# Entry
Amino acid sequence: MQLSVGVTGGIATGKSTVTNILVQQGFKIVDADQIAREVVLPQTPGWQQVVQLFGTRILQPNQELDRVQLGQIVFNNQQRLTQLNQVLQPLIRQRLTELIQSIPDDNIPVFFEIPLLFEQHYQNLLQKTLLVYAMPAVQLQRLQKRNNLTKQAAQQRINSQLDLQQKRKLADFIIDNDGNYHHLIQQVQRFVTLLT
# Structure
């Protein structure tokens, strides 16, 4: 049986840390952020649509998207974020669907790290979902430190995503990432045991 599991959470809740633990345990991870970068490589249809929407000011000298510049535009303007998602999400969904369909029927889970899993309804493509949760104050502090953002800028990015409490209601499994790394590893191991 194919076993596809979506891993999500809010920005700076620890999704990547959890998926790194899963990689260390030998599991395959598909990173939706990597797919999002691939669908906008220079001269691809996705790249052309994004440049058409936002202009050449979002390009670096090598013609790749300037993700910092683009982020400043879309995280301060919900309408522009929606426009970007209308371009990118169909391309990402198509690639994710292809990858899910290629999973062997060997009952070994393949994990899909998808930040916007619930926002874009990717849970409909997957068998199970895992939410990596952190308390709002912890999440805000981590994001400020990780991205060197002001409190206001960090909160804007958090607010651009679906509220974590709503995600808790939608997830099949939840890992609370407010503690230390050792505790997180234990939770991931318990989760894997439940899956297999």
Q: What stands out?
A: The CA atoms of residues 9 and 150 lie 21 Å apart.
